[in-house]
Amino acid sequence: MQYQTESWGSYKMSSLGFGGLGMVADTGLLRIESLASESAVVIFSVSTCCMCHAVKGLFRGMGVSPAVHELDLHPYGGDIQRALIRLLGCSGSSSPGSLPVVFIGGKLVGAMDRVMASHINGSLVPLLKDAGALWL
Amino acid sequence: MANHRMSEATNHNHNHHLPYSLIHGLNNNHPSSGFINQDGSSSFDFGELEEAIVLQGVKYRNEEAKPPLLGGGGGATTLEMFPSWPIRTHQTLPTESSKSGGESSDSGSANFSGKAESQQPESPMSSKHHLMLQPHHNNMANSSSTSGLPSTSRTLAPPKPSEDKRKATTSGKQLDAKTLRRLAQNREAARKSRLRKKAYVQQLESSRIKLSQLEQELQRARSQGLFMGGCGPPGPNITSGAAIFDMEYGRWLEDDNRHMSEIRTGLQAHLSDNDLRLIVDGYIAHFDEIFRLKAVAAKADVFHLIIGTWMSPAERCFIWMAGFRPSDLIKILVSQMDLLTEQQLMGIYSLQHSSQQAEEALSQGLEQLQQSLIDTLAASPVIDGMQQMAVALGKISNLEGFIRQADNLRQQTVHQLRRILTVRQAARCFLVIGEYYGRLRALSSLWLSRPRETLMSDETSCQTTTDLQIVQSSRNHFSNF
Q: Where is the bZIP domain (chain B)?
Protein backbone atom coordinates (compact mmCIF):
# COMPACT_ATOMS: atom_id res chain seq x y z
CA MET A 1 0.00 0.00 0.00
CA GLN A 2 2.74 2.39 1.05
CA TYR A 3 4.85 1.44 -1.93
CA GLN A 4 1.94 1.88 -4.26
CA THR A 5 1.16 5.41 -3.09
CA GLU A 6 4.76 6.42 -3.32
CA SER A 7 5.26 5.26 -6.88
CA TRP A 8 1.96 6.79 -7.89
CA GLY A 9 2.90 10.03 -6.19
CA SER A 10 6.28 10.36 -7.80
CA TYR A 11 4.76 9.60 -11.14
CA LYS A 12 2.23 12.35 -10.68
CA MET A 13 4.95 14.70 -9.51
CA SER A 14 7.01 14.40 -12.64
CA SER A 15 3.91 14.59 -14.75
CA LEU A 16 3.00 17.84 -13.01
CA GLY A 17 6.32 19.31 -13.94
CA PHE A 18 7.72 19.54 -10.41
CA GLY A 19 10.86 17.97 -11.82
CA GLY A 20 13.67 17.89 -9.31
CA LEU A 21 11.25 18.14 -6.43
CA GLY A 22 9.88 14.72 -7.30
CA MET A 23 13.32 13.23 -6.97
CA VAL A 24 13.71 14.43 -3.39
CA ALA A 25 10.11 13.73 -2.54
CA ASP A 26 9.50 13.44 1.18
CA THR A 27 6.40 12.37 2.99
CA GLY A 28 5.03 15.93 3.23
CA LEU A 29 5.29 16.49 -0.47
CA LEU A 30 3.72 13.11 -1.16
CA ARG A 31 0.82 13.90 1.10
CA ILE A 32 0.29 17.21 -0.71
CA GLU A 33 0.35 15.37 -3.98
CA SER A 34 -2.24 12.85 -2.96
CA LEU A 35 -4.53 15.42 -1.33
CA ALA A 36 -4.26 17.83 -4.25
CA SER A 37 -5.37 15.25 -6.75
CA GLU A 38 -8.42 14.22 -4.75
CA SER A 39 -10.53 17.13 -5.88
CA ALA A 40 -10.76 19.64 -8.75
CA VAL A 41 -9.95 22.53 -6.42
CA VAL A 42 -7.93 21.89 -3.28
CA ILE A 43 -7.08 24.58 -0.76
CA PHE A 44 -4.50 24.09 1.97
CA SER A 45 -5.59 26.41 4.70
CA VAL A 46 -5.32 27.26 8.38
CA SER A 47 -8.66 27.48 10.14
CA THR A 48 -7.86 30.79 11.87
CA CYS A 49 -6.25 32.41 8.81
CA CYS A 50 -8.29 35.31 7.40
CA MET A 51 -6.65 35.27 3.98
CA CYS A 52 -7.57 31.60 3.76
CA HIS A 53 -11.12 32.63 4.55
CA ALA A 54 -10.88 35.14 1.69
CA VAL A 55 -9.70 32.60 -0.86
CA LYS A 56 -12.40 30.13 0.17
CA GLY A 57 -14.89 32.96 -0.26
CA LEU A 58 -13.52 33.71 -3.72
CA PHE A 59 -14.09 30.16 -4.97
CA ARG A 60 -17.47 29.85 -3.32
CA GLY A 61 -18.41 33.18 -4.86
CA MET A 62 -17.54 31.77 -8.25
CA GLY A 63 -19.71 28.75 -7.66
CA VAL A 64 -16.89 26.33 -6.95
CA SER A 65 -16.84 24.14 -3.86
CA PRO A 66 -13.20 23.50 -3.06
CA ALA A 67 -11.81 20.72 -0.88
CA VAL A 68 -10.28 22.50 2.08
CA HIS A 69 -7.57 20.98 4.26
CA GLU A 70 -7.13 22.90 7.46
CA LEU A 71 -3.52 22.16 8.32
CA ASP A 72 -3.82 23.21 11.96
CA LEU A 73 -6.43 20.49 12.40
CA HIS A 74 -4.75 17.92 10.17
CA PRO A 75 -2.69 15.11 11.79
CA TYR A 76 0.22 15.71 9.40
CA GLY A 77 -0.40 19.43 9.06
CA GLY A 78 3.10 20.43 10.12
CA ASP A 79 4.76 18.19 7.54
CA ILE A 80 2.46 19.38 4.80
CA GLN A 81 2.96 23.05 5.66
CA ARG A 82 6.75 22.74 5.59
CA ALA A 83 6.53 20.98 2.23
CA LEU A 84 4.21 23.71 0.88
CA ILE A 85 6.66 26.40 1.92
CA ARG A 86 9.40 24.64 -0.01
CA LEU A 87 7.09 24.21 -2.96
CA LEU A 88 6.13 27.90 -3.06
CA GLY A 89 9.72 28.95 -2.57
CA CYS A 90 10.54 27.05 -5.77
CA SER A 91 7.58 28.44 -7.65
CA GLY A 92 8.93 31.94 -7.13
CA SER A 93 5.96 33.29 -5.24
CA SER A 94 6.30 36.83 -3.95
CA SER A 95 5.30 35.69 -0.48
CA PRO A 96 6.87 32.28 0.07
CA GLY A 97 5.42 30.13 2.75
CA SER A 98 2.15 31.99 3.07
CA LEU A 99 -1.09 30.10 3.22
CA PRO A 100 -3.53 29.54 1.59
CA VAL A 101 -2.12 27.42 -1.21
CA VAL A 102 -4.44 26.46 -4.06
CA PHE A 103 -4.26 23.46 -6.37
CA ILE A 104 -6.58 23.23 -9.37
CA GLY A 105 -6.84 19.96 -11.23
CA GLY A 106 -3.96 18.63 -9.19
CA LYS A 107 -1.73 21.48 -10.37
CA LEU A 108 -0.24 24.11 -8.12
CA VAL A 109 -1.67 27.57 -8.76
CA GLY A 110 0.00 29.21 -5.82
CA ALA A 111 -0.80 31.46 -2.90
CA MET A 112 -3.41 34.21 -2.76
CA ASP A 113 -1.56 36.67 -5.00
CA ARG A 114 -1.24 34.11 -7.82
CA VAL A 115 -4.90 33.11 -7.52
CA MET A 116 -6.04 36.74 -7.68
CA ALA A 117 -3.74 37.59 -10.56
CA SER A 118 -4.90 34.62 -12.60
CA HIS A 119 -8.51 35.52 -11.87
CA ILE A 120 -7.99 39.10 -13.07
CA ASN A 121 -6.08 38.11 -16.20
CA GLY A 122 -8.85 35.66 -17.02
CA SER A 123 -6.87 32.43 -16.78
CA LEU A 124 -8.51 31.11 -13.62
CA VAL A 125 -11.93 30.43 -15.07
CA PRO A 126 -10.62 28.32 -18.00
CA LEU A 127 -8.45 26.43 -15.53
CA LEU A 128 -11.48 25.71 -13.36
CA LYS A 129 -13.48 24.64 -16.38
CA ASP A 130 -10.71 22.32 -17.50
CA ALA A 131 -10.56 20.78 -14.04
CA GLY A 132 -14.28 20.26 -14.08
CA ALA A 133 -14.95 22.60 -11.20
CA LEU A 134 -17.02 24.95 -13.36
CA TRP A 135 -19.42 24.12 -16.11
CA LEU A 136 -20.65 27.51 -17.19
CA MET B 1 47.76 90.10 56.78
CA ALA B 2 45.45 87.57 58.42
CA ASN B 3 43.55 90.42 59.91
CA HIS B 4 43.14 91.93 56.51
CA ARG B 5 41.66 88.81 55.15
CA MET B 6 39.41 88.49 58.12
CA SER B 7 38.14 91.98 57.66
CA GLU B 8 37.69 91.28 54.00
CA ALA B 9 35.70 88.17 54.74
CA THR B 10 33.51 89.83 57.26
CA ASN B 11 33.01 92.71 54.97
CA HIS B 12 31.95 90.35 52.22
CA ASN B 13 29.52 88.71 54.54
CA HIS B 14 28.19 92.00 55.53
CA ASN B 15 27.78 92.98 51.92
CA HIS B 16 26.07 89.77 51.05
CA HIS B 17 23.58 90.06 53.81
CA LEU B 18 22.84 93.66 53.37
CA PRO B 19 21.35 93.78 49.85
CA TYR B 20 18.24 91.72 50.46
CA SER B 21 16.99 93.70 53.34
CA LEU B 22 17.79 96.86 51.49
CA ILE B 23 16.42 95.77 48.16
CA HIS B 24 13.04 95.34 49.70
CA GLY B 25 13.20 98.74 51.20
CA LEU B 26 14.43 100.19 47.93
CA ASN B 27 11.85 98.43 45.88
CA ASN B 28 9.07 99.81 47.93
CA ASN B 29 9.77 103.47 47.48
CA HIS B 30 12.03 103.37 44.42
CA PRO B 31 14.80 105.52 45.76
CA SER B 32 17.16 104.51 42.97
CA SER B 33 14.96 105.94 40.31
CA GLY B 34 14.58 108.88 42.55
CA PHE B 35 18.31 109.21 42.56
CA ILE B 36 18.51 109.10 38.87
CA ASN B 37 15.81 111.59 38.43
CA GLN B 38 17.42 113.77 40.96
CA ASP B 39 21.01 113.47 39.85
CA GLY B 40 20.50 112.92 36.20
CA SER B 41 18.14 114.73 33.93
CA SER B 42 14.45 114.00 33.62
CA SER B 43 15.12 111.92 30.52
CA PHE B 44 15.91 108.92 32.72
CA ASP B 45 12.35 107.87 32.87
CA PHE B 46 12.74 104.18 32.19
CA GLY B 47 10.99 101.07 33.37
CA GLU B 48 12.54 98.85 35.97
CA LEU B 49 14.51 96.64 33.58
CA GLU B 50 15.68 99.41 31.34
CA GLU B 51 16.95 101.14 34.41
CA ALA B 52 19.25 98.21 35.07
CA ILE B 53 20.64 98.46 31.58
CA VAL B 54 21.04 102.17 31.83
CA LEU B 55 22.99 101.79 35.00
CA GLN B 56 25.11 99.11 33.42
CA GLY B 57 25.75 101.31 30.45
CA VAL B 58 26.68 104.12 32.71
CA LYS B 59 29.25 101.96 34.37
CA TYR B 60 30.88 101.01 31.08
CA ARG B 61 30.78 104.52 29.85
CA ASN B 62 32.37 105.60 33.07
CA GLU B 63 35.26 103.21 32.61
CA GLU B 64 35.71 104.36 29.07
CA ALA B 65 35.67 107.92 30.11
CA LYS B 66 38.23 107.42 32.80
CA PRO B 67 41.40 108.73 31.16
CA PRO B 68 39.94 112.06 30.15
CA LEU B 69 38.26 112.22 33.51
CA LEU B 70 41.56 111.92 35.32
CA GLY B 71 43.22 114.24 32.92
CA GLY B 72 40.89 117.03 33.86
CA GLY B 73 37.38 115.65 33.85
CA GLY B 74 36.29 117.92 31.05
CA GLY B 75 34.42 115.13 29.28
CA ALA B 76 32.70 113.86 32.38
CA THR B 77 29.13 112.95 31.74
CA THR B 78 26.32 113.94 33.96
CA LEU B 79 25.76 110.34 34.90
CA GLU B 80 29.04 110.27 36.70
CA MET B 81 27.36 112.36 39.25
CA PHE B 82 25.71 109.21 40.38
CA PRO B 83 26.87 108.98 44.00
CA SER B 84 28.33 105.50 43.73
CA TRP B 85 30.90 106.56 41.19
CA PRO B 86 33.26 108.39 43.47
CA ILE B 87 34.05 105.09 45.14
CA ARG B 88 34.82 103.59 41.81
CA THR B 89 37.07 106.37 40.64
CA HIS B 90 38.75 106.17 43.97
CA GLN B 91 39.48 102.53 43.32
CA THR B 92 40.66 103.02 39.76
CA LEU B 93 43.10 105.77 40.35
CA PRO B 94 46.57 105.44 38.78
CA THR B 95 47.94 103.00 41.37
CA GLU B 96 45.03 100.64 40.81
CA SER B 97 44.59 101.21 37.10
CA SER B 98 45.94 97.79 36.18
CA LYS B 99 43.45 96.13 38.50
CA SER B 100 40.52 98.15 37.27
CA GLY B 101 40.78 96.56 33.85
CA GLY B 102 40.12 93.12 35.24
CA GLU B 103 37.33 94.24 37.43
CA SER B 104 34.16 92.98 35.93
CA SER B 105 30.92 94.84 36.09
CA ASP B 106 28.90 92.25 37.95
CA SER B 107 30.93 91.58 41.06
CA GLY B 108 32.82 94.79 40.88
CA SER B 109 31.22 96.54 43.72
CA ALA B 110 31.35 93.67 46.18
CA ASN B 111 35.05 93.10 45.56
CA PHE B 112 35.59 96.69 45.42
CA SER B 113 34.51 97.57 48.91
CA GLY B 114 36.69 94.75 50.17
CA LYS B 115 39.68 96.19 48.37
CA ALA B 116 38.94 99.58 49.67
CA GLU B 117 39.03 98.01 53.07
CA SER B 118 42.38 96.40 52.42
CA GLN B 119 43.78 99.66 51.30
CA GLN B 120 42.71 101.25 54.46
CA PRO B 121 45.98 100.84 56.45
CA GLU B 122 47.86 102.77 53.80
CA SER B 123 46.48 105.92 55.13
CA PRO B 124 48.83 108.25 53.30
CA MET B 125 47.80 106.67 50.07
CA SER B 126 44.09 107.01 50.71
CA SER B 127 44.45 110.57 51.92
CA LYS B 128 46.37 111.24 48.77
CA HIS B 129 43.46 109.82 46.85
CA HIS B 130 41.17 112.09 48.68
CA LEU B 131 43.25 115.01 47.76
CA MET B 132 43.29 113.92 44.19
CA LEU B 133 39.61 113.27 44.15
CA GLN B 134 38.68 116.56 45.61
CA PRO B 135 39.35 118.73 42.57
CA HIS B 136 37.99 116.07 40.31
CA HIS B 137 34.66 116.09 42.00
CA ASN B 138 34.54 119.78 41.93
CA ASN B 139 35.14 119.56 38.25
CA MET B 140 32.32 117.16 37.85
CA ALA B 141 30.05 119.29 39.89
CA ASN B 142 30.91 122.23 37.73
CA SER B 143 30.35 120.37 34.52
CA SER B 144 27.08 119.04 35.77
CA SER B 145 25.93 122.48 36.77
CA THR B 146 26.73 123.73 33.31
CA SER B 147 24.68 120.96 31.84
CA GLY B 148 21.70 122.16 33.77
CA LEU B 149 21.51 119.69 36.63
CA PRO B 150 19.60 120.46 39.79
CA SER B 151 21.69 122.23 42.37
CA THR B 152 21.20 119.40 44.85
CA SER B 153 23.71 117.31 42.95
CA ARG B 154 26.32 119.93 43.52
CA THR B 155 25.74 119.95 47.19
CA LEU B 156 25.99 116.20 47.17
CA ALA B 157 29.38 116.09 45.57
CA PRO B 158 31.66 117.82 48.05
CA PRO B 159 31.08 115.48 51.05
CA LYS B 160 31.87 112.43 48.96
CA PRO B 161 35.55 112.14 49.74
CA SER B 162 34.58 111.25 53.28
CA GLU B 163 32.47 108.34 52.15
CA ASP B 164 34.29 105.68 54.17
CA LYS B 165 33.92 105.67 57.91
CA ARG B 166 37.37 104.30 58.61
CA LYS B 167 39.00 106.52 56.07
CA ALA B 168 37.32 109.42 57.68
CA THR B 169 38.64 108.42 61.08
CA THR B 170 42.17 107.93 59.78
CA SER B 171 42.12 111.22 58.06
CA GLY B 172 40.62 112.67 61.21
CA LYS B 173 37.56 114.12 59.56
CA GLN B 174 34.02 114.06 60.93
CA LEU B 175 31.82 111.49 59.27
CA ASP B 176 28.56 112.55 57.88
CA ALA B 177 25.89 109.98 58.76
CA LYS B 178 23.60 111.21 56.05
CA THR B 179 26.24 110.82 53.36
CA LEU B 180 27.13 107.36 54.60
CA ARG B 181 23.56 106.29 54.43
CA ARG B 182 23.27 107.68 50.94
CA LEU B 183 26.41 105.89 49.83
CA ALA B 184 25.16 102.65 51.26
CA GLN B 185 21.92 103.19 49.44
CA ASN B 186 23.86 103.82 46.25
CA ARG B 187 25.79 100.63 46.60
CA GLU B 188 22.63 98.69 47.18
CA ALA B 189 20.95 100.38 44.26
CA ALA B 190 23.87 99.34 42.08
CA ARG B 191 23.69 95.79 43.38
CA LYS B 192 19.97 95.73 42.85
CA SER B 193 20.40 96.90 39.29
CA ARG B 194 22.99 94.19 38.70
CA LEU B 195 20.57 91.59 39.99
CA ARG B 196 17.90 93.03 37.74
CA LYS B 197 20.27 92.88 34.83
CA LYS B 198 21.05 89.27 35.62
CA ALA B 199 17.34 88.45 35.75
CA TYR B 200 16.78 90.33 32.53
CA VAL B 201 19.57 88.45 30.77
CA GLN B 202 18.17 85.15 32.05
CA GLN B 203 14.73 86.13 30.86
CA LEU B 204 16.16 87.00 27.45
CA GLU B 205 17.98 83.70 27.34
CA SER B 206 14.86 81.67 28.18
CA SER B 207 12.85 83.66 25.64
CA ARG B 208 15.47 82.92 23.04
CA ILE B 209 15.24 79.19 23.78
CA LYS B 210 11.45 79.37 23.67
CA LEU B 211 11.60 81.18 20.35
CA SER B 212 13.93 78.63 18.81
CA GLN B 213 11.63 75.84 20.01
CA LEU B 214 8.67 77.57 18.40
CA GLU B 215 10.63 78.03 15.21
CA GLN B 216 11.48 74.33 15.14
CA GLU B 217 7.84 73.42 15.71
CA LEU B 218 6.78 75.74 12.94
CA GLN B 219 9.37 74.23 10.63
CA ARG B 220 8.11 70.76 11.41
CA ALA B 221 4.48 71.70 10.91
CA ARG B 222 5.33 73.45 7.69
CA SER B 223 7.25 70.49 6.30
CA GLN B 224 4.43 68.14 7.29
CA GLY B 225 1.94 70.42 5.61
CA LEU B 226 4.11 70.17 2.53
CA PHE B 227 4.17 66.39 2.75
CA MET B 228 0.43 66.22 3.10
CA GLY B 229 0.02 68.37 0.03
CA GLY B 230 -3.22 69.68 1.48
CA CYS B 231 -4.60 66.16 1.62
CA GLY B 232 -5.64 66.49 5.21
CA PRO B 233 -4.56 67.73 8.58
CA PRO B 234 -1.25 66.24 9.69
CA GLY B 235 -1.90 63.81 12.49
CA PRO B 236 -0.51 64.81 15.84
CA ASN B 237 1.24 61.47 16.27
CA ILE B 238 2.24 60.66 12.74
CA THR B 239 4.89 57.98 12.56
CA SER B 240 8.11 58.44 10.67
CA GLY B 241 7.16 55.71 8.21
CA ALA B 242 3.87 57.46 7.55
CA ALA B 243 5.59 60.83 7.15
CA ILE B 244 8.02 59.33 4.66
CA PHE B 245 5.14 57.80 2.73
CA ASP B 246 3.25 61.09 2.69
CA MET B 247 6.32 62.77 1.32
CA GLU B 248 6.83 60.07 -1.30
CA TYR B 249 3.16 60.19 -2.22
CA GLY B 250 3.37 63.95 -2.69
CA ARG B 251 6.26 63.39 -5.07
CA TRP B 252 4.37 60.60 -6.80
CA LEU B 253 1.39 62.92 -7.34
CA GLU B 254 3.68 65.45 -8.98
CA ASP B 255 4.98 62.70 -11.25
CA ASP B 256 1.39 61.71 -11.92
CA ASN B 257 0.55 65.20 -13.14
CA ARG B 258 3.59 65.12 -15.37
CA HIS B 259 2.58 61.75 -16.83
CA MET B 260 -0.96 62.97 -17.37
CA SER B 261 0.13 65.99 -19.37
CA GLU B 262 2.51 63.75 -21.30
CA ILE B 263 -0.33 61.43 -22.26
CA ARG B 264 -2.62 64.36 -23.06
CA THR B 265 -0.15 66.01 -25.39
CA GLY B 266 0.74 62.62 -26.85
CA LEU B 267 -2.89 61.99 -27.75
CA GLN B 268 -3.43 65.49 -29.10
CA ALA B 269 -0.26 65.39 -31.19
CA HIS B 270 -1.38 62.11 -32.86
CA LEU B 271 1.89 60.41 -32.07
CA SER B 272 2.74 57.11 -33.67
CA ASP B 273 1.68 53.99 -31.78
CA ASN B 274 5.29 53.23 -30.89
CA ASP B 275 5.84 56.67 -29.36
CA LEU B 276 2.53 56.46 -27.55
CA ARG B 277 3.45 52.99 -26.31
CA LEU B 278 6.55 54.43 -24.66
CA ILE B 279 4.41 56.99 -22.87
CA VAL B 280 1.82 54.42 -21.78
CA ASP B 281 4.49 52.00 -20.57
CA GLY B 282 6.05 54.87 -18.66
CA TYR B 283 2.71 55.55 -17.02
CA ILE B 284 2.23 51.90 -16.05
CA ALA B 285 5.70 51.80 -14.53
CA HIS B 286 4.79 54.95 -12.62
CA PHE B 287 1.55 53.30 -11.51
CA ASP B 288 3.48 50.26 -10.26
CA GLU B 289 5.70 52.58 -8.26
CA ILE B 290 2.88 53.59 -5.89
CA PHE B 291 2.31 49.95 -4.96
CA ARG B 292 5.98 49.53 -4.15
CA LEU B 293 5.79 52.65 -1.96
CA LYS B 294 2.63 51.41 -0.27
CA ALA B 295 4.16 48.01 0.44
CA VAL B 296 7.02 49.75 2.27
CA ALA B 297 4.61 52.04 4.13
CA ALA B 298 2.31 49.15 5.10
CA LYS B 299 5.25 47.50 6.84
CA ALA B 300 6.00 50.71 8.73
CA ASP B 301 2.50 51.93 9.61
CA VAL B 302 -0.40 49.78 8.47
CA PHE B 303 -3.05 52.00 10.07
CA HIS B 304 -1.88 55.10 8.27
CA LEU B 305 -2.53 53.31 5.00
CA ILE B 306 -5.71 51.45 5.82
CA ILE B 307 -7.71 54.47 6.97
CA GLY B 308 -6.36 56.54 4.09
CA THR B 309 -5.02 59.52 6.04
CA TRP B 310 -2.68 60.12 3.12
CA MET B 311 -5.59 60.60 0.70
CA SER B 312 -7.71 63.65 0.09
CA PRO B 313 -11.07 63.54 1.93
CA ALA B 314 -13.15 62.91 -1.19
CA GLU B 315 -10.88 60.04 -2.20
CA ARG B 316 -11.27 58.66 1.31
CA CYS B 317 -15.01 58.56 0.70
CA PHE B 318 -14.41 55.74 -1.80
CA ILE B 319 -11.67 53.99 0.12
CA TRP B 320 -11.48 50.23 0.03
CA MET B 321 -8.54 48.51 1.73
CA ALA B 322 -6.18 51.44 1.57
CA GLY B 323 -6.99 52.45 -1.99
CA PHE B 324 -9.57 52.55 -4.77
CA ARG B 325 -11.81 49.64 -5.65
CA PRO B 326 -10.47 48.00 -8.81
CA SER B 327 -14.01 47.62 -10.14
CA ASP B 328 -14.48 51.41 -9.74
CA LEU B 329 -11.86 51.91 -12.44
CA ILE B 330 -14.12 50.11 -14.88
CA LYS B 331 -17.15 52.10 -13.73
CA ILE B 332 -15.18 55.26 -14.48
CA LEU B 333 -14.16 53.96 -17.88
CA VAL B 334 -17.32 52.42 -19.25
CA SER B 335 -19.11 55.71 -19.87
CA GLN B 336 -16.00 57.38 -21.23
CA MET B 337 -14.57 54.79 -23.59
CA ASP B 338 -15.96 54.57 -27.07
CA LEU B 339 -15.05 52.67 -30.23
CA LEU B 340 -14.51 49.44 -28.31
CA THR B 341 -14.86 46.17 -30.16
CA GLU B 342 -17.29 43.54 -28.98
CA GLN B 343 -14.38 41.45 -27.77
CA GLN B 344 -12.89 44.34 -25.85
CA LEU B 345 -16.24 45.05 -24.21
CA MET B 346 -16.53 41.40 -23.23
CA GLY B 347 -13.05 41.51 -21.79
CA ILE B 348 -13.80 44.64 -19.80
CA TYR B 349 -17.06 43.28 -18.41
CA SER B 350 -15.37 40.04 -17.51
CA LEU B 351 -12.62 42.04 -15.79
CA GLN B 352 -15.21 44.01 -13.88
CA HIS B 353 -16.88 40.81 -12.80
CA SER B 354 -13.73 39.07 -11.66
CA SER B 355 -12.42 42.17 -9.87
CA GLN B 356 -15.72 42.43 -8.02
CA GLN B 357 -15.48 38.79 -7.01
CA ALA B 358 -11.91 39.25 -5.82
CA GLU B 359 -12.90 42.40 -3.91
CA GLU B 360 -15.75 40.53 -2.30
CA ALA B 361 -13.42 37.72 -1.27
CA LEU B 362 -10.90 40.09 0.28
CA SER B 363 -13.68 41.96 2.05
CA GLN B 364 -14.89 38.70 3.54
CA GLY B 365 -11.38 37.97 4.72
CA LEU B 366 -11.04 41.39 6.31
CA GLU B 367 -14.42 40.96 7.95
CA GLN B 368 -13.22 37.70 9.43
CA LEU B 369 -10.08 39.46 10.64
CA GLN B 370 -12.15 42.12 12.35
CA GLN B 371 -14.42 39.50 13.88
CA SER B 372 -11.50 37.54 15.28
CA LEU B 373 -9.98 40.75 16.61
CA ILE B 374 -13.27 41.50 18.35
CA ASP B 375 -13.38 37.98 19.77
CA THR B 376 -9.79 38.21 20.98
CA LEU B 377 -10.17 41.58 22.66
CA ALA B 378 -13.65 41.00 24.05
CA ALA B 379 -12.74 37.74 25.76
CA SER B 380 -11.54 38.08 29.34
CA PRO B 381 -7.87 37.09 29.40
CA VAL B 382 -7.39 33.43 30.15
CA ILE B 383 -3.78 33.54 31.32
CA ASP B 384 -2.68 37.16 31.26
CA GLY B 385 -3.46 40.31 29.34
CA MET B 386 -0.13 40.41 27.60
CA GLN B 387 -0.74 37.13 25.82
CA GLN B 388 -4.12 38.38 24.68
CA MET B 389 -2.49 41.52 23.32
CA ALA B 390 0.17 39.46 21.57
CA VAL B 391 -2.56 37.48 19.81
CA ALA B 392 -4.37 40.71 18.85
CA LEU B 393 -1.13 42.20 17.55
CA GLY B 394 -0.57 39.14 15.44
CA LYS B 395 -4.01 39.61 13.92
CA ILE B 396 -3.37 43.28 13.20
CA SER B 397 -0.19 42.34 11.39
CA ASN B 398 -2.42 40.42 8.97
CA LEU B 399 -3.84 43.76 7.84
CA GLU B 400 -0.62 44.29 5.94
CA GLY B 401 -1.34 41.12 3.96
CA PHE B 402 -4.77 42.41 3.00
CA ILE B 403 -3.37 45.73 1.83
CA ARG B 404 -0.79 43.86 -0.21
CA GLN B 405 -3.42 41.64 -1.80
CA ALA B 406 -5.73 44.56 -2.50
CA ASP B 407 -2.88 46.49 -4.10
CA ASN B 408 -2.00 43.40 -6.09
CA LEU B 409 -5.58 43.31 -7.29
CA ARG B 410 -5.50 46.99 -8.29
CA GLN B 411 -2.21 46.56 -10.07
CA GLN B 412 -3.39 43.46 -11.93
CA THR B 413 -6.57 45.23 -12.97
CA VAL B 414 -4.65 48.12 -14.52
CA HIS B 415 -2.31 45.71 -16.31
CA GLN B 416 -5.28 43.73 -17.60
CA LEU B 417 -6.91 46.90 -18.93
CA ARG B 418 -3.71 47.64 -20.78
CA ARG B 419 -3.81 44.12 -22.28
CA ILE B 420 -7.42 44.45 -23.38
CA LEU B 421 -7.05 47.87 -24.98
CA THR B 422 -4.98 49.13 -27.89
CA VAL B 423 -2.16 51.55 -27.14
CA ARG B 424 -4.23 54.56 -28.11
CA GLN B 425 -7.23 53.33 -26.15
CA ALA B 426 -5.02 52.60 -23.16
CA ALA B 427 -3.59 56.11 -23.30
CA ARG B 428 -7.13 57.48 -23.43
CA CYS B 429 -8.20 55.16 -20.59
CA PHE B 430 -5.37 56.21 -18.28
CA LEU B 431 -6.03 59.85 -19.09
CA VAL B 432 -9.70 59.41 -18.13
CA ILE B 433 -8.73 57.68 -14.88
CA GLY B 434 -6.05 60.24 -14.08
CA GLU B 435 -8.37 63.14 -14.73
CA TYR B 436 -11.07 61.56 -12.63
CA TYR B 437 -8.78 61.27 -9.60
CA GLY B 438 -7.44 64.74 -10.25
CA ARG B 439 -11.00 66.09 -10.11
CA LEU B 440 -11.69 64.10 -6.96
CA ARG B 441 -8.69 65.72 -5.30
CA ALA B 442 -9.73 69.14 -6.57
CA LEU B 443 -13.18 68.51 -5.13
CA SER B 444 -11.54 67.79 -1.78
CA SER B 445 -9.65 71.04 -1.68
CA LEU B 446 -12.74 72.92 -2.82
CA TRP B 447 -14.73 71.32 -0.05
CA LEU B 448 -12.04 72.15 2.48
CA SER B 449 -11.75 75.73 1.30
CA ARG B 450 -15.45 76.50 1.12
CA PRO B 451 -16.27 79.67 3.06
CA ARG B 452 -16.39 79.46 6.82
CA GLU B 453 -19.87 80.97 6.90
CA THR B 454 -21.19 77.80 5.31
CA LEU B 455 -19.60 75.85 8.09
CA MET B 456 -21.03 78.08 10.76
CA SER B 457 -24.54 78.25 9.34
CA ASP B 458 -24.80 74.57 8.53
CA GLU B 459 -25.23 73.10 11.97
CA THR B 460 -25.11 69.47 10.97
CA SER B 461 -21.83 69.86 9.15
CA CYS B 462 -20.47 71.73 12.13
CA GLN B 463 -21.20 68.77 14.31
CA THR B 464 -19.40 66.37 12.04
CA THR B 465 -16.49 68.64 11.29
CA THR B 466 -13.64 68.57 13.73
CA ASP B 467 -11.82 71.66 14.85
CA LEU B 468 -8.80 70.56 12.89
CA GLN B 469 -10.75 70.50 9.68
CA ILE B 470 -12.07 73.96 10.32
CA VAL B 471 -8.57 75.18 10.90
CA GLN B 472 -7.46 73.33 7.81
CA SER B 473 -10.23 74.79 5.72
CA SER B 474 -9.48 78.31 6.83
CA ARG B 475 -5.80 77.72 6.11
CA ASN B 476 -6.55 76.50 2.63
CA HIS B 477 -8.98 79.31 2.18
CA PHE B 478 -6.28 81.84 2.88
CA SER B 479 -3.68 80.10 0.83
CA ASN B 480 -5.98 80.35 -2.14
CA PHE B 481 -5.68 84.08 -1.97
A: 176-220
CATH number of the domain residue A110 falls in = 3.40.30.10
Show the low-confidence residues of chain A (pLDDT under 70): 1-25, 90-97, 136
Give domain status of residue A108, yes or no.
yes
Chain A, 28 to 67: residues with Cβ < 8 Å from chain B are 48, 50-55, 57-58, 61-62
Residues 323-362 of B with CB under 8 A from A: 326, 347, 350-351, 354-355, 357-358, 360-362
CB atoms inside a 10 Å sphere around CB A130: 13
Q: Which residues of B touch A110 (CB under 8 A)?
A: none
SS3 state of residue B172: coil
Which helix (DSSP H) or strand (DSSP E) does residue A42 occupy?
A: strand A41-45
CA distance B311 to B232: 7
- The number of distinct structural domains making up chain A is 1
pLDDT (0 to 100) of residue A25: 53
Q: Which of B347, B408, B419 sits opposite A116 (nearest CB)?
A: B408
ipTM of this predicted complex? Answer: 0.79
What residue numbers bound the domain in which A102 lies? Answer: 26-131
Q: Is the N-terminal amide bond of B234 cis, ω within 30° of 0?
A: no
